[in-house]
Amino acid sequence: MRLIQIEDTKKELEQQVKELYLEAFPKEERKPYELMKQKQREGKMQIWAVVQEDKLDFCGLAITILYRDIVLLDYFAICQDKRGKGIGSKILAKIKEKYAGKRLFLEIESVSERLEGLSKEERTIRERRKGFYSRNGMKETGLEVVLYGVSMEVLSAGGEIDFKEYLSLYVDTFGEKVAEKIKWDKKGES
Fold it and tell me: Are 110 and 151 in contact (CB under 8 A)?
């Protein structure tokens, strides 16, 4: 597996990244794609196409936010026809390697039992997602947030983060207006 930053790619590969991004993430969880490209030009984000090592066979995408010594894996998706083949684990290992020496975090939709109104199917999907990240070395941080109205758990590949530092990442990248839509989910505390 190889990570290729989209600014360094052919338009066709960038189009594949954009199409997977639009397909894989619900509209309410997506940031405007052009905004992310702008933030990449500013050095605050990186948009990666993931391809097989020996050819430019597109496998997935990874989009990160960079802040001080923190990297937030903001979006991560594998092409539907490539899922279930161990590719996600290989890509996650590449991402950890790429950002070695940094604190790597990601957010997943909460699997907390206190969440009401989740269908059995949705809870199962969330639990499977968390299981995937756990098997690949991501650990619970104990930090839960409400991001644009969605309860999220913050996982880490090593290192700790508190809500103030987490919020600072968003303020630095997107400004105060966006950060106002992020709340510390104190109900997640024991």
Answer: yes
pLDDT averaged per 10 residues in sequence order, the chain, 190 residues: 84 93 92 95 96 86 98 97 92 96 96 75 90 96 90 93 96 90 71
Distance CA 144, CA 160 (A): 13
The reported pTM is 0.92
Q: At 67, which helix (H) or strand (E)?
A: strand 58-67
β-sheet with 58-67: strand ranges across = 2-5, 45-51, 58-67, 70-78, 103-109, 150-156, 139-147, 182-184
Using CA atoms, how far apart are residues 184 and 176, in angstroms rounded to an integer?
A: 15
Pair type for strands 70-78 and 103-109: parallel
